[in-house]
Write a structure and sequence with these properties.
alpha/beta, Rossmann fold, 7-stranded mixed sheet, Metallo-beta-lactamase, Chain A
Amino acid sequence: MHIEFHGAAGEVTGSCHLIEVGNHRILLDCGMIQGGREAEARNARPFAFDPGAIDAVVLSHAHIDHSGRIPFLVKSGFGGPIYTQKASRDLCRIMLRDSAFLNEKDAEWANRKRERKGMKPVEPLYTVADARAAMRQFRGIDYGVKKKILPGITLRLADAGHILGSAIVELWLEESGVQRKLVFSGDLGARDRPILRDPAYIKSADFVLMESTYGDRLHRSPEDTRNEVIEIVREAEKARGNILIPAFAVGRTQHILYEFAKHYRDWGLGRWQIFLDSPMAIEATEVYTLHNDLYDTESAELWRKNSHRALLPNLHLCRTSNQSMNLNRIRAGAIIIAGSGMCTGGRIMHHLKHNAWRSDCHIVITGYQADGTLGRKLVDGATQISLWGEKITVKAHVHTIGGLSAHADQAGLLDWYRNFERRPPLALVHGEPDSIDALAERICDKFSIRVIRPRPGKRIDLRHPDKSV
């Protein structure tokens, strides 16, 4: 009975953990590594285990850094079921198709260059057809349902409050008469945030695997965050410029639209034109409306009474490339929400090209930016960026609004762990080293336990996890 770490160990993206119970093997997540080109090139490397020997995958949620290598896993020989919450299944249908499309385009672009150099063509990591094939293996389950998925392995999902369908994974494991319960936090949401319910508390566990993305910091309060947004909107209006919001298509976009709708009058948004420039975000928002049974009480009531169009009469949905390109002619009064959330591709790149050099432009960063990404460079104060080989001077005002994050901060993570009885052994994943170290130190001080900080390839005996600390 073991767990072995193959991703998001000492880094944020690429979540992937292998559990062995008797003769059975399951994966917790199978995510894409995100960052610079060197980091992303790791996605095409063969898995460190035999995909054909995996019996099942349990997916915590749909974000690509947790789900993005599933089609590659299937392409490499995995033929078992993929268990996830029903809304996560529906979101993966959109997100994996989009990821596959981008893989195909990247390969096509690379092969044009390779052909001119007389080099052999490369294959995409996986294709749209591969993504469709992988979706046939998905099995959607509800929160709170206890399900035996293999001999000696029983699964239950609880609401993680991170994005729609995000789950805390509870696993009951049994081998040779020994029983252990493992709890994987997945990505935990912040409490008292709109749309989704708060993350569920879990009382019992023999071993806990917890994310640590923001383990070294505290988010601003919702009130301070709203005041910060109001100030940005006022500054941009006074300067007669545009506001660019790189946003993750799933979770962050819906949060932003909700806040805009709720504070439409307070923030003076009627004087702006708001553009959602992301076909995937538009589709994801439609999935959100289909699963309103997962909303918190306030959001469920608001969305039952109004559609997002009625709540935001000046919201324009840009589905086509021509609609997106038309935005580049707008000099002032536009709020453009576009992907990708880390500025690593997609339509936000074009909007940065046409706006980042303007001192009247405001760029609002609303989520985590991985090392090596363009978004991280903007956050770190880059005065020049490169887009398609062209150097662009950055004169725009760059704002980082941590209070809109879909992740719990240090206090939220401590609060979630505090609710476990008997302080079970804990491993921290899905965090950069500084975040992990800061959170581990706080946990050690508050709860008098030692914390495992796994590196890739580390193997822990779940019968005696305390001996691995």
